[in-house]
Amino acid sequence: MLFLFSITWGAVSGWWALACLLLGVLYAWLMYRSPINLGDKFRYALSVVRALAVAIIALLLLAPMLKSVGYKSEKPLVLILQDNSESVKLFPSPNNKVSPLTSEGDLEGALDKVKSTLGDNYEVHEFNFDKTLHSGLSNKFNGKQTDISAALKQLNEQYVNQNIGAIVLATDGLYNQGSDPQYEARNFKTTIYTVALGDTTPKRDLLIANVNYNKTAFLGNDFEIEVLAEAYQSKGETMRLTVTEDGKQVAAENIPVNSDAFQKLVPIKLSADRKGVRKFNISIAPVSNELSTQNNSETIYVEVLDAKQRILLVYNGPHPDVSVIKQGIESNRNFEVKTTLLSDLSTLKIGDYSLVILYQLTPGNSGLLQSLAKTKMPVWYMLGGQSDLQDFNNQQQAIKISSGRAEMQEVFAQPVPEFSAFTLTDSTRQKISTFPPLMAPFGSYTSAPANQVLFKQKIGNVLTTYPLLSFSDEAGKRTGILTGEGLWRWQLAEYKANGNHHAMEELLSQSVQYLTANANRQQFRVYPAKNVFDEGENVILNAELYNDALELINTPDVKINLKSVDGKNYSFLFTRSGQSYQLDAGALPVGEYAYSATTKVGLHSFTASGQLTVKALNLETRQSAANHQLLNNMAKQSGGQMLLPSQINQLADLIRKNDNIKTVVYQDKHYSDMIDVKWIFIVILALLSTEWFIRKREGEI
Q1: Short-list 101, 127, 287, 297, CA closest to 199
Q2: Are 599 and 556 in contact (CB under 8 A)?
Q3: Which three-class secondary structure state does DSSP give residue 513?
Q4: Helix, strand or coil for residue 226?
Q5: How far is CA 4 from CA 10, 666, 674, 675, 682, in A?
Q6: Model-level pTM?
Q7: Which domains occur in the chain, in start order?
Q8: What is the pLDDT averaged over residues 162-172?
């Protein structure tokens, strides 16, 4: 970086510098005008020294500013982004010199050569992507999912406000995750060059393009799946679509193909006649000369549940929180929420439900609710501006609120690390801590020692001990208490920030799951985070161990063994998480697994077993014809160009000739008080010391 320095005078005229110099000359003349024992040579030299010292001191009294200007050059960035998904390898570019499948002209080497050709005038960074962005180029082409939009977004966030000269995107244009990458590409104010991989020519191929289905069904019901079947260059053929379970055919359909680009959405009804995880294989019989048979089959897993747990949500008047609570709880398909006004409660039987949520109500509001206090029915109190705090204090012992006036105040959620009744992910805790405030009753809050607080109230920037969301378990009856209203604000804030409601859904689902847990539960439980994991996804299992008083403990070790259908064993030791256990078994091979966990408390041994499945991802085989139109559009809208793999050697010249790709020079101005510059005082001290030393030596002092 180059620096230049100059003096600025602010509101004072620059002519004062000449006045300071004249003052120094006058002072030196008055001091050395009379004859002294110094020779003329020394006298003139000392006059100059004294004049400079006085002039500089006078100059400092005017408080001028010292301006430094720095110039920093930033070379243009060239970001190379290469598709590393399976579709690039399965459906390669035809008749091109550069192909990811040939050792003499591989894609990785060709793109890497662009970096060396551009030389030191450009800063080149290389990446590959599938579902996410990774550093460096790759020739493995083993990505199971493709999300071009996410890769571009991560790139944009990583190099925000930097001098991005060009982006080179080498892909076949096929994506099966995320949104249309053209929208994300518009966020770049730079040129995009696309390298069009793959083949756009339709080949003879039958395939299952997509399967729509619910991952859960309920015992005794029929459920429907929708299969999108496609056929290319196969006019006159008949597709034979079959659905099998454990090798047994459960559905079949013949579909005549009447065009060269044919597709049909086929609804198929299946029966949930037994509970558990059901595996269905959907396949299309291959025809002669077909391009690929890998995309002719798809496997789906449907969990058949015995019954839903029913939740009753009672409220006294319309409020946006009511629909937010219902939606969040029902995101877990094990729960069904019935909402009812207090005035309509008499038409329902409370005993038919597993949990009652009282939204700004207390049992004292209705004779029909008073019996709740005498039963083991779990209750979740949600307070707000309409709550009767006196009746609330009388109905439960977990929280007491002393309030002298009926006012509400804004409170933020502050997670409590010691909470152990159930587990929320760190991501959810962090998100909720940034959500807008809820409105809680003004007053002093007292929490019982046995009450477990998940979130405390933060009022402004002050963290209080007042509970915002807490849970208790007294003699087998579980109670939840939310002391604020305005959950709709949380839902809107999360959607605005993340485009989803995952944190709200997890909070409500986990809370209800804790409140509705069977009091006569097993002392040792082991369960996976979900019954079906995608290929490449980390397998997460949880374990809970209860003592004889049904209190969570995690003192003893918990071991688990997972066994695949082909006989391979995987042994692990759970780690302690809060007061329970958790295991991240990593990514396991595709297949079905039986697990068996063991632990020992004193002389008593406990075992727990179950099953889980790792499902293969076949998304990359569903499309064989590359989408070069997408790549051409992305290049044109940015002022770039689409190239074929054989034209990669032209990239360096195109980038050099692009006048918009240039080195940027940044100017950085900095102002400081001249009186703060230490070297000026060193100069003054040196001048005066030199004068004193010479005069002392010559006997003038």
Answers
A1: 101
A2: yes
A3: helix
A4: strand
A5: 18, 14, 15, 19, 21
A6: 0.58
A7: 2-71+669-697 (no CATH), 76-201+625-662 (3.40.50.410), 205-305 (2.60.40.10), 309-515 (3.40.50.880), 524-615 (2.60.40.1930)
A8: 93
